[in-house]
Amino acid sequence: MPAAVEFTHLDKSFDAVAALRDVSFTIAPGEAHAIVGENGAGKSTLLKILAGELRPDAGELRVDGQPIALGHPREALGRGIGLVHQEMLLFPNLSVAGNIFAGRELTGRFGVLRESAMRDRAREIVARLSLAVSPDTEVESLPIAHRQLLQVARALAFECRVLALDEPTTSLTAAETDHLFRVLDDLKRAGVTLIYVSHRLPEVFRLCDRVTVLRDGRYVDTRPVASATHDDIVQAMVGRTLPSVKSEVSSVRARSSDLRLETSHLSGRGFSDVSLDVSRGEIVGVFGLVGSGRTELLESIVGLRARAEGSVAIDGRPGRFRSPRDAARAGVVLVPEDRQRQGLFFNLNLRHNAVLPSAVTRGVHVISAAERTTARSLLDRWRISAPSIDATPDHLSGGNQQKLVAAKWLATNPRVLLLDEPTKGVDVGAKYEIHGIVRDMAARGAGCLVVSSDLPELLALADRILVMREGRVRGEVPAAEADEERVMRLAATGAVA
Amino acid sequence: MKHVWRAREVSTIVILAIEILFFAWYLRPGGGRPHPFLNAGNALLVLKYSSIYGIAAIGAAIVIISGGIDLSPGAVIALTGVVAGALFVDAHWSLAASAAAGLLVGAACGAFNAVLIVLVRLPPFIATLGVMGIARGAAFIITEGRYFDLSRDLPTDWRMLGIPLDWTSAIVMVALAALFHVLMTRFQWGRAVFALGGNPIAALYSGVRVGLVQASVYVIAATLAALSGIALAIVQGQGKADLAMGYELDIIASAVIGGASLAGGRGSVVGAVLGALIFGVLRNALPQIPGATFYDRLIVGVVVIVIVVMDQVLERRASVARRSE
Questions:
Q1: Can you say whether residue A244 is alpha, beta or left, with left for phi > 0 and alpha for psi between -120 and 50 degrees?
Q2: Which residues pair with residue A10 across a beta bridge?
């Protein structure tokens, strides 16, 4: 039996940056095959080549033993290859049925749409995914998790035989992830070949038969999941042994009495009655699932959202900010969740991005020599690997982008640092370094509030963990006593263990 | 039935109805004289003049739904009138043949837009801005400052399929609105236009023939503008290079108050025609109010802003309602 997919000597570069270098390996029919690697390892590029969305510079691709024309999405779809994108590639203005069939509508003569046939088929597919949505619902009004499953539905609609998924669980809650996995298990039983790209190794162990590791655009190796350990894979991914993140649980610092940030009975849309405090040098974690009001809380502290009631105090002085600019002047900065949309300027070079909050000015005039020095030292200090400080951020890997978003605030020496999902979609190495940045800020006296749905991260990083559910703080667990089960139970049910 | 009332076109119809009622009341005559605004002859006049914008606005709506913009229709209208006028008056072609040649010239302008946008990959704003200048310039070069007087040679008893000339453009507008409404909502091509406007990258990856669909949209828009140009030449009785100056903005405004979103992916061709009628009524009624003519442009500007803001408020409320369902 020929391999379901065979990658042969694939090369791909973007400008001068090599994304894939001579990558060859095969995927057996019917298997669930994981592809793992740090950000910038070339996983997404490989999937896009498979789906015909990118044309490689060299190499060959075979599907079921037959070569496939490269760089033609229609050809790939016709050969039964479906790709679920990391960024949700949907049509917000079309209905669920419209999205499922986009580009491959069921038509009668002259291209007349067979609306009712599509609606019926969409209803079946949606039911197969146990999704409770009507085929007529406009996608714009669907929650994120449903949109993710809708992308799978698109692949199912045309009987794909190879389904590739790129980080499908980044925005899903634990329950939604379980749901997705049940669907994928079903597909696997039905003989669909799965290619699964993820940073989350537990998911790889849960779903996949074999795992291929890529590093810096090169193929490292493929091994059966059954005979691999978590540490083996991480080591192959980063190519060096990292001090285990977990072993470095920060020692509980004595809570000093001066409070950097204090909120009392803060309420607004999405959260209510939140009272919390963060002391000088303390790292407080906020754990909550998507929709628990965590992001809304942070945004309201820096003045991005209206607050209905309650107050915020910074170093004991009231802080009622009208805008993030206002907040930053008082030393309160927010590192947002969505670096693509909220964190970086892709039209500006790294130098301008890095120094934007701390722009070295004389009056309104930006001093470019000083700007260069500041930017360069920032990049060096936080090991942000970039071709040059005059490159734009799209030349950086996701991890380096995130480091840049966090690091650009350091030059301003904030008093309160608010971080929203600081390591979302970031590889192990970059995660480790971002944690270093946060610890360093705390050591220099900042109060840090870290929102995350990555529990091991908070366990490793925070001095205390607050748990939010449905807009309220449901409990507080000191890091020394925290374990995954206890925090998770608080977050999911609100019950104190 | 519920979704029929939710349709965006309904609010445009309501606005049009309120507008008509307002002018019917404001311009009510005293002492048994005939109503100067609310009468059959005036209604025909409104339809006739609205159709000049309305036919082109159908094309503008389609372009805007696809996520693009077309600034060239005003110039294409003028060029078409000049070309058809030159052939009809100077070369003594038949009216039908002159009109067909005008349409071809319009389609060629659209094809040029399409080449610049799809193959050269210019942003639509720039490409159509350039073609707008070229088409207007070509019209001036052809006329050399003169104009073609069609009115002398226009057969007064000419009928198309038994329809008097006066009525033709209004009926063509209604027929085209119906045709393109069906094409946009019931055919694969229309779905592809909506998909392209909703998310061009997803459209490409979904196997939509993005280039072909995008090209078709600009060719259709320019051809419809050319049809507007023929209508204007017949109504005004002349082909002149400086006719239809600034029409592109009224055409785009018609599409926008009819529900087309400049972000792409949303809109309606029926709405665009209703939008053209809203302007048509305004342009018809204002001159009947003493002194109001000078307020024409100002009122049109205010109306565009008010209607779009209202629309956003309604849309926001509707999406909140949808989410809480």
A1: beta
A2: A23
Residues 251-310 of B with CB under 8 A from A: 265-266
Give DSSP secondary structure letters for B69-118: ----HHHHHHHHHHHHHIIIIIS---HHHHHHHHHHHHHHHHHHHHIIII
* Cα A477–Cα A174–Cα A277 angle in degrees, nearest 5: 30
Rounded to whole angstroms, how far apart are CA atoms B6 and A73? 36
A322: tokens are 């009208």
Q: Which residues of B21-57 are buried (b: 16+ CB within 10 A; e: fewer)?
A: eebeeeeeeeeeeeeebbeeebeeebbbbbbbbbbbb
Q: Does the pLDDT of residue A132 top 50, yes or no?
A: yes
pTM (global) more than 0.80:
no
Looking at residue B12, its amino acid is T
- What's the pLDDT at B325? 46
The reply to whether residue B199 touches residue A105, judged by beta carbons under 8 angstroms, is no
* CB-CB contact of B221 with B62 (8 Å): yes
* Mean per-residue pLDDT pooled into runs of 10, chain B (325 residues): 61 90 89 85 90 95 96 96 93 90 97 97 96 96 88 70 76 95 94 93 87 97 97 88 90 92 91 94 87 81 84 71 54
Chain B interface, mutation test: which of A75, A94, A142, A340, most B Cβ atoms within 10 Å? A94
Tally Cβ neighbours within 10 Å of residue B213: 20
Tell me the three state secondary structure of residue A308.
Answer: strand
More confident of the two residues A184 and A349: A184
**Phi, psi angles (nearest 5°) of residue A81:** -105, 120
Q: How many residues does chain B have?
A: 325
Count of beta carbons in the 10 Å neighbourhood of residue B299:
14
Cβ distance of A102 and B204 shorter than 8 Å:
no
Cα nearest neighbour of B319 on chain A:
A141
Query: How many angstroms separate the first and last alpha carbons of chain A?
Result: 53
B124-143 helix and B73-85 helix, angle to the nearest 10 degrees:
30
Contact assessment for residue A465 and residue A453, using Cβ atoms and an 8 Å cutoff? no
Radius of gyration of chain A (CA): 24
